[in-house]
């Protein structure tokens, strides 16, 4: 029974990650297909000519459509149309804030204009003595830098995710209070998503112990030997 139990647990360790990954991928593909398939004209839908369904056709259509839109937006006419559309959206009170924020986030992340989520850090949050794992997302707002100039010279934005990371907290912390960890962002996300169960490997270089070099015989400690002058004086006095 003990051996069967070990085999059963080994089977779970092998099949569970594969099954969960396949399920999430299938769920994502099915979700996209459910929204895109009704929009495909029947004349161009290959499922109308084949006796079976093709999974992922919606994802393929989305990839082709996004690529064509990007090619159109890169041209002169596309930039002109995009400028007019952004001007119209900029006049809408609520929509312009949402559109501007989302656009700035995507431009920053995709264009790699900042060092967001490049460093994994540990800070004392929510109180001193309790450490939380976070990610540096950039420098704090200039007004924050000016108002807190007496507190620190450099203040950074640190995102502290929850476990599992469905939300998080934004903390503005002086850089001197931030401890940068020798850990990749992927390892940090694994640590947060697992709630501390999956601990990344230690990436520090191994400590090299320096061998102890014995002192030569002629350089031994003089404190353990009598003074030569004292011995010479004693021998003369005996004579």
Describe the structure.
The structure is a single chain. This protein is of the alpha+beta class and 239 residues long. It contains seven helices and five strands, in the order ααααββαβββαα. It has a five-stranded antiparallel sheet. β1 and β2 form a beta hairpin. About 3% of the residues have low confidence.
Shape: flat
Record the strand order, biggest sheet: 4-3-2-1-5
Total DSSP helices: 7
Cα-to-Cα separation, first versus last residue? 93 Å
Low-confidence stretches: 219-226
State the helical fraction. Answer: 40-55%
Summed over residues and divided by their number, the pLDDT gives a mean of 79
The number of distinct β-strands equals 5
Largest sheet: 5 strands, antiparallel
> What gyration radius follows from the Cα positions, in whole Å?
33 Å
SS strand fraction: 5-15%
Secondary structure layout:
Blueprint: H1 2-36, H2 57-73, H3 76-89, H4 95-110, E1 120-124, E2 131-139, H5 142-147, E3 155-161, E4 168-174, E5 179-180, H6 185-193, H7 228-238
Antiparallel strand pairs: 1-2, 1-5, 2-3, 3-4
Helix pairs in contact: 1-2
């Amino acid at each position: 029974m003990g051996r069967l139990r070990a085999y059963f647990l080994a089977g779970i360790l092998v099949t569970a990650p594969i099954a969960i990954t396949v399920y999430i991928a299938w769920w994502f593909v099915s979700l996209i297909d459910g929204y895109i398939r009704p929009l495909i004209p029947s004349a161009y839908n290959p499922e109308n000519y084949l006796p079976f369904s093709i999974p992922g056709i919606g994802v393929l259509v989305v990839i082709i459509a996004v690529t064509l839109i990007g090619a159109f937006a890169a041209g002169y006419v596309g930039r002109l149309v995009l400028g007019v559309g952004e001007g119209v959206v900029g006049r809408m009170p609520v929509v312009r804030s949402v559109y501007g924020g989302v656009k700035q986030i995507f431009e920053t992340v995709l264009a790699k204009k900042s060092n967001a989520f490049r460093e994994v850090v540990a800070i004392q949050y929510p109180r001193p003595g309790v450490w939380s794992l976070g990610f540096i997302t950039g420098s704090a707002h200039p007004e924050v830098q000016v108002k807190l100039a007496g507190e620190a010279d450099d203040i950074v934005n640190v995102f502290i995710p929850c476990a599992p990371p469905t939300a998080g907290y934004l903390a503005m912390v002086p850089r001197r209070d931030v401890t940068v960890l020798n850990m990749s962002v992927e390892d940090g996300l694994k640590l947060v998503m697992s709630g501390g169960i999956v601990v990344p490997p230690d990436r520090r270089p191994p400590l090299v112990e320096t061998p102890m070099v014995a002192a030569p015989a002629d350089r031994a400690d003089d404190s353990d030997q009598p003074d030569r002058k004292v011995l010479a004086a004693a021998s003369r006095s005996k004579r």
